[in-house]
Amino acid sequence: MSLRKAAVSLVKPVRGVLRPLSSVVLNRSYSAAAAGARAVLENELDSIRAAGTWKGERIITSKQGPHINVDGSGGAILNFCANNYLGLSSHPEVVQAGIDALKQYGAGLSSVRFICGTQDLHKHLEQKLAEFHEREDCILYASCFDANAGLFEVLMGPDDAVLSDELNHASIIDGIRLCRAKRLRYKHMDLNDLETKLKEAQSSRMRLIVTDGVFSMDGDVAPLPGICDLAEQYGAMVFIDECHATGFLGPRGRGTDELLGVMDRVHIVNSTLGKALGGAAGGYTVGPKPLIDLLRQRSRPYLFSNSLPPPVVGCATKAVELLLASSEIAQSMTAKTMRFRNSMTQAGFTIAGTAHPICPVMLGDARLASLMADDMLKHGVYVIGFSYPVVPKGKARIRVQISAAHTDEDIDRCVNAFIQTGRKHGVIS
């Protein structure tokens, strides 16, 4: 045997031994890391359960509407916690528009907008939304969360300042974190504190006041006239998130800025297609055309997300067209909202907010909110308890949402169920 062959014959078995050992060590290391991570996750989940803030997901077996079917519950259930403010999620014309778009344009684009993902129906919806809000232009996103994530990074640089209400939606907070501007947070709806922050920001190139039009957990409405006054005094722009206002606040349902008479003083509006406007998915920004053009060039959620599916666009377009044609649905909301609020207050419950269809039944304790929501389902009413981290600790509540599709009988049944459940848990006498 040659020296070379002898050497090879010796190395081969060594390699055969080393490879399995190396693999075993790596597998053990990976298994230990995975087991450690699993233990950390399980401990975190246990702490959520122990705190009474676990968020289960009930399974709906019907279309969305004021009456739904819920897995495990017999018969139709009254639904009082959807964002389906105008009852358009299952409106026959909206549904048919989605079917027609599916047949004509297909299920999806398999592309982002700037490559090969823009159809004429996308541009048509953007034009309709700009018309609805009386703004120059509009850009569509996969969600309003994406719209908020994509705006501030593009608009605001290190020489600018963002002034944000402390209770703004999580998507606004996350979007602001992505930009390099100076960030100033003012106390909730506190115009005096906002003015103080505006004075601090006077050296900045641009100043942008950022607020929800309606704050979704409490149903309170931002003081837009005062905000706009301060913006004009201190040279700032105004941005509002209108997810819980578009379609039903204001005489024509245009939103908070119309309700409070400041449509021509608010510069940028972000909102959603996933609530009052059909309830499927999607969000958008409306505002000055140069801003919208710049967002198309640089907004990352827009550039790197697939186009909205044609059926979603078809449904939303029909919803907007219905609202452009008539404000009758939007105007029906006020009486129904006040019927619920007045009846609950007379029964002894504390209802946060003012005249908004979001009617938070304040309970304080997270576990109580969860138990009461479960008992309400036994009475045939679907509501959900909200607790930390969705709302601050100690401010748990059941958030009731009134829809234009609810009848007076539906509302009265819901109130009666609350009275029975509230007495059982000692919330009211």
Automatic annotation (TrEMBL):
Residues 77-417 form the Aminotransferase class I/classII large domain. One of its GO terms (biological process) is L-threonine catabolic process. Its EC number is 2.3.1.29. One of its GO terms (molecular function) is glycine C-acetyltransferase activity. It catalyses: glycine + acetyl-CoA = (2S)-2-amino-3-oxobutanoate + CoA. One of its GO terms (cellular component) is mitochondrion. PROSITE patterns: AA_TRANSFER_CLASS_2. The keyword Acyltransferase applies. It is an enzyme of class 2 (transferase). Keywords: Acyltransferase, Pyridoxal phosphate, Transferase, Transit peptide. Its cofactor is pyridoxal 5'-phosphate. Transmembrane segments: none annotated. Gene3D superfamilies: Aspartate Aminotransferase, domain 1 (3.90.1150.10), Type I PLP-dependent aspartate aminotransferase-like (Major domain) (3.40.640.10). It holds the Pfam family Aminotran_1_2. HAMAP family: 2am3keto_CoA_ligase (MF_00985). Belongs to the class-II pyridoxal-phosphate-dependent aminotransferase family. This is 2-amino-3-ketobutyrate coenzyme A ligase, mitochondrial.
